[in-house]
Design a protein that fits this description.
This protein has 20 helices and eight strands. By secondary structure, it is of the alpha/beta class. α3 runs antiparallel to α5 (71-87). Mean pLDDT is 81; it is low at 299-304 and 433-443.
Length: 443
């Protein structure tokens, strides 16, 4: 999970601080030394770490902190606040044209996931109510055009191509005209990359910029390359003038040094983060939420947003009705597991929950395996058995176990989990009804 190693080390430091009723100057100095080492091991830029620690030290050694009733908590709050500031303080939104047509230009080196990000961004804009088009302006790599057409089709967005044209700036200009002609209102330009930064690449990108005058130039960088990503971002910004950064593969970066350094080094904000390979796995970057994840406080707002996106409101209303009649079936149980899948799976959900970072990869893997086992068991039942679990006698359970390739014990375990969930759902529903009743009568 993202920042796993750093999060683990910082939580170890905070545990020591919270365990002391009174903090001395030496306690804070030792804690800051450990935080400094943790950040450096996470591949955070050395100067960024130095400034970060100095700022915390100045604030944490104040008399009001040392004499506080909860000095450990106060120091943690300071670290959290400074971490949010380091990551950019507030989320930085895309700049759209005040009226009419918006152009977004994606730039970056090869291998950062630029073409896939273009499709993810198109899917995001579609959700935001825009009508985007993708423009294939990588004139050197034919596979890039093919790839953009494939991912464009997957997100239902048109792709503009000119396979015989070798002028990227002209293609971009023609794409903008075509998009406007079709009544679309956003263009995402996928440009060429290189394995390294060179003058030829920058000149081409400058020509594209001059021709289409994009409202946003977003640099796509690979989080897993650490400080190389930060250096690339700095070079692109100095040469081209970028407006923001899309950091891909953050879900696979256990250190997080690039994310923690790039804003301080370049002055440009991270606007989006890639948290998986699926074409909906692009998230708006919120510094406060990311700081919460790093410090083991979770991202409850992110969790609620994901749950809302995954929720089928019609099904939810139907389920509430059935719960009021004590009708929670194994099909409902299966639907609930499906909601977790839509939210990105167990690891994604846990990553957003307070303390979720303490769950090991092995525990998550076991949880995912258990999910798959339970699904297999339910799919081995007849529709009637799913609707009426009371039918599941010994012989039926034996047949289901054989069909799912599991033991009868696994089937029994699934039934118990279902019954426990049914009880819990009934209790929640009763509590909700009681609350409504109380409100009605002024309790």
């Amino acid at each position: 999970m993202a920042f796993e190693s750093l999060s683990e080390k910082l939580n170890g430091v905070f545990k020591k601080l919270k365990g002391k009723g009174v903090l001395s100057e030496n306690d804070i100095t030792e804690a800051l030394r450990e935080i400094r080492l943790a950040l450096l091991e996470a591949d955070v830029n050395y100067k960024v770490v130095k400034d970060f620690i100095e700022t915390i030290k100045t604030k944490a050694l104040g008399e009001e902190i040392l004499k506080s009733l909860t000095p450990g908590q106060q120091v943690i709050k300071i670290v959290n606040d400074e971490l949010v500031a380091l990551l950019g303080s507030t989320s930085s939104k895309l700049t759209y044209a005040s009226s009419g047509f918006t152009t977004i230009m994606l730039v970056g080196l090869q291998g950062t996931g630029k073409t896939t990000t273009a499709a993810k961004l198109a899917a995001y804009l579609t959700k935001e109510g825009k009508k985007p088009m993708l423009a294939a302006c990588d004139i050197y790599r034919p596979a890039a055009i093919d790839q953009l057409e494939v991912v464009g089709a997957q997100v239902g967005v048109p792709v503009y191509t000119e396979r015989d044209n070798k002028d990227a700036a002209q293609i971009a200009k023609n794409a903008a005209k075509e998009a406007e002609r079709k009544g679309l209102n956003a263009l995402i330009i996928d440009t060429a990359g290189r394995l390294h930064i060179d003058e030829e690449l920058m000149e081409e990108l400058k020509r594209v910029k001059k021709e289409v005058k994009p409202h946003e130039i977003l640099l796509v960088v690979d989080a897993m390359t650490g400080q190389d990503a930060v250096n690339v971002a700095d070079s692109f910004h100095k040469a081209l003038g970028i407006d923001g950064i899309v950091m891909t593969k953050l879900d696979g970066d256990t250190r997080g040094g690039a994310a923690l350094s790039v804003k301080a080094v370049t002055g440009r904000p991270i606007k989006f983060i890639g948290m998986g390979e699926k074409l909906d796995a692009l998230e708006v970057f919120y510094p406060d939420r990311m700081a919460g994840r790093i410090l083991g406080m979770g991202d409850v707002l992110g969790f609620i947003e994901k749950a809302t996106e995954a929720a089928d409101l019609t099904k939810a209303a139907e389920l509430e009705k059935r719960l009021s009649k004590n009708q929670f079936t194994l099909e409902d149980f299966l639907d609930q597991m499906g909601q977790v899948r839509k939210m990105g799976g167990l690891s994604k959900v846990l990553d957003m929950m307070p303390g979720g970072g303490k769950v090991t990869e092995d525990q998550i893997d076991k949880g995912e395996q258990e999910f798959r086992r339970m699904e297999a068991v339910i799919y081995s039942m007849t529709p009637q058995e799913r609707k009426e679990p009371s039918l599941l006698n010994a012989s039926r359970r034996k047949r289901i176990a054989a069909g799912a390739g599991v033991t009868v014990t696994a089937v029994n375990s699934l039934i118990k989990k279902y019954e426990d969930t049914k009880k819990m759902m009934k209790q929640l529903n009763n509590a909700k009804t009681a609350k409504k009743f109380g409100k009605r009568f002024g309790f």
